[in-house]
Write the structure tokens for this entry.
Amino acid sequence: MEPDLGELAIETRELRKQYGRIVALTGLTMTVRRGEVFGFLGPNGAGKTTAVKLLLGLSRPTSGRGQVLGAPLGGVATRQRIGYLPELFRYQGWMTAREVLALHCELARLPRPSWPAEVAEALELVGLADRSNDRVETFSKGMQQRLGLGVALLGKPELVVLDEPTSALDPVGRQDVRGIIGELRSRGVTVFLNSHLLTEVERVCDRVAIVDRGGVVAELAMTDLVAEGGIRIRVTGPVDAKVIAGRFGPTRQDGEWLVVASIADAQVPALVAELVAAGGAVHAVVPEHRTLEDRFLALLGAAPAQVAAPAQVAAPVGGSADPGTLP
Amino acid sequence: MSRAALVIARLTLREALRRRLLWALLGLTVLLVVATGWLFGRAAELTPFEGGERQLILSQLLVMIAFMFSFVLTMTGAFAAAPAIGPEIENGLLLAVLARPVRRSDVLLGRWIGLALVLVGYALAAGYLEVAVVALTTGYAPADPLVAPPYLAAEALVLLTLSLAFSTRIAPVASGSIAVVGFGLAWMGGIAGGVGDYLHNDSLRTAGTVAHLILPSDTLWRGAMFGLEPPPDVLAAAGSQARIFTVSPFFAGTPPPPLWLAWCLAWVVATLAIGAFLFRRREL
């Protein structure tokens, strides 16, 4: 069912952007619901940053239409309700971090009495409180990106657009950003996350759109990825497990494991009960979800779709220092 | 004027102060004033002329110093404005600003106001200081000593505006270079017009008029020259000996007509509007 327009933070229909002969976006159609963390993925040159610029009104579409927070694309007033961390982040080097944040409070038209609290909160949130009076030109790239994140969060925006927000951050910084995004989600803020880091997107996003050659090739919920995976089960005993499991979904043998694809979560107890009733000994049942990377590569035709691995191996949860990146 | 433009103007002013641009200019001015004070003192001592002729010679010396000062001033304006927009788009500084409820025209106008305040403040302070030092060291004062510095400031504003408008689309070096060449061509156009007037030659007159229409910096320079010259009675008293000065490229017999001053104002507004249009159409 189509979501109600009021529930949508972003809605685009056939957005096209052409620079001379080069077509950056061929027809972007997507929807982002309010309050969700939305991942925007695609290979280099897919048109991701162009799409972000169109959403923010920094660039005008050649054709097509769209709405952000209920207003047509390009509305200056809407930007008051949006926080943005550009991929190419840079702030006035001659100013201190505190001054940069105060400047953006003013540009965002926040009431002057709220500035000190807004600035202090942003500094605390991004871990720059102890460097607040230092000039930005003395900051490392990572610290400048943290500052940019603080700038994007000023004034409690309804929509936060983060374009590669962890490109300059170390693993600790990336974990901090995940924490901040989680907090934004709990406050009901919509987050539009443009990132190359697939495992990062997998961990924080509710839904993703995968773009390629200027258009969305798939929009999917992260829960769909889990549901798509099925299970792998290890059974011993005098039972033809493959025949029984075959009634629940397509199967294949993977060593001592039997993989049952596309089985609904609710059907798993019934499968186990049947196997046991037939005399089988069920040693383990492991949910088999496909990683975002599997799906991404499959959609872009870079790898066979059926390649799958156990969830606990392919999608580690926690502060991994080695997130997957796009090819 | 929008609030955002004022925020950007204040930001530009703060940057000029923080980056010590203003202080560097003021330091150079002190140096210039001390040097020219000494020069004028020596010239006043050494000149064999008296009365009106002495005043004419000192005024010409002052006009030539003012010409050098106007060149420094206009180049300062042009090269301060040349990197004001384009490079800040390319390095990402403006992306964060323009994602706020800020129009591109606000950024352009704010930049113009901030730079104009720095430039005008510097031109007036340095200009009046120079006139005062010359009066103190030589006793020479123009007919109206208040006139010339505002003309010099306005002349620099013309080049600042041109360079800022170009900075929305082209590289700073190109933008600054266009301003330098424009300054030179407009000055030569003005001289051609003056020679045309003297020789009653319509082609040269037209060349001067066209130059003044395309880039009105020379119109304002002529106002500055007129403002540094002695009172008309001194010129009249000098009689035929003053005649040689009237054909000098460093002499203006009359102030710019009000219609031409109105054109200067219209030109600045139109150039800023063109800059805003170019900026609006630029892809970020």
About this structure: Residues 104-138 of chain B form the longest helix (35 residues). Chain B touches chain A at residues 3-4, 7, 11, 15, 18-19, 91-93, 95-103, 283-284 (CB under 8 Å). The radius of gyration of chain B is 20 Å. Chain B has 13 helices and no strands.
